[in-house]
C-alpha cells in the first residue's frame, strides 16, 4: 500500500513539473534566415508620392529605368511627378530556400511621400551582404494604415509610408548549405544556461539510437550521429520533440530607462531590508516561526517557517502592511498602491541591489 501511494505521489509530481520541448529551447546551428535588401520605385500613387524637387534621387532612378525601356528623357526636363516614390525593400531569405519559392517583402518609403496606399512596386532586385542578387520583388503593396485630409485638417491611423507584399518576391539564387554533410549536429540554446545545456544532453543520451550528445558550453550542445544513420532530418525531428524539465531561471529585473517600465521574473526575491526614498519608506523583515504539533506522540513534525512582514509608510498618507513571502512582486504592488512613480521604483530597486537585499540581477536597457 505504501509503495502504491508513493508511486501515485511521484506521478502527480511529474505531472506538475514544467517541461518544454527541445525545439522550444534551442535552434539548429547553421539553419537560419538571411537578410536581403533592395532599392526600387513605387508607381500608381494617388498624388501622394515624392516631391521630386526635394528628392532628386527619385527622378534619377526614374530616368534610368525609362532609358532601360528605350525611352529617352530630354536633358534638363523638370518632371513634377506626384505618383512615384523611392522605397527600400527588405526581405528574409528562409533557411533551405529553393529557386522559384515565394517570400514576403516589406516596402518602406525613403523620401517624403505621404502614402504608399494603392501603389505598385516595380521589379526590384534584392541583394545579400555579398552584393549578389538572390530574389526579385514586384507586386501591389498592402498598407495597413488609413488617413484623410480636408480643409487643412487631417486624420491618420497607423503608418502610411510602409507596407507589405505577401509572396512579393521570387528566389532566383539558392544558398549552399552544409546541413547533413557531417556526422555532428550543434544545438544552440536560446539563453545561456549551463544546467539546461547539460540537461538537454542527458535527455538525448538516455534515448538509445539518437547519438552521443555533449554540452560544449552554456550555449551549445553537440550531437554525434550514429555512423549508420544518414537521415539526420528524422533524427533531428525526434530529438526536437523530446521534453526537458525546465530548470529555475536566473533571477533578473529589467529596467527600461527610456519608458520607465520594470519587468521581473518569478525567481526574484527580497531579503530583510529597509528603504527610504524621499517621503516614502519601505521595511522588509523576515523572522523564523517554529510550528509544533498540538499533542505529543501525534506523529507530527516540528517545522520552521519563515514569516515576512513588509511595511510601507508615506508622510501624509495611510500605513499599509503586507504579510506574505518576501517576493518583489508584493513590494512593487505595494509601491504602486502608494503612488510611487516609475523613476522612484527604479531608484529603489537599484539601491536594494547595492545593499545586497535584492536577490536578482538588475539589467538596465
UniProtKB/TrEMBL annotation:
GO terms for MF: structural molecule activity
UniProt cross-references to InterPro entries, sorted A to Z: Flag_FlgI
Output one GO BP term. Answer: bacterial-type flagellum-dependent cell motility
* Signal peptide bounds: 1-19
Subcellular location per the Swiss-Prot or TrEMBL entry: Bacterial flagellum basal body
Q: Taking the first listed entry, what is the main subcellular location of this protein, grouped into a coarse class?
A: other
**Entry function:** Assembles around the rod to form the L-ring and probably protects the motor/basal body from shearing forces during rotation.
State the similarity comment. Belongs to the FlgI family.
Q: What's the protein called, per UniProt?
A: Flagellar P-ring protein
Q: What is the lineage of its organism?
A: Bacteria, Pseudomonadati, Pseudomonadota, Gammaproteobacteria, Enterobacterales
Gene expressing this chain: flgI
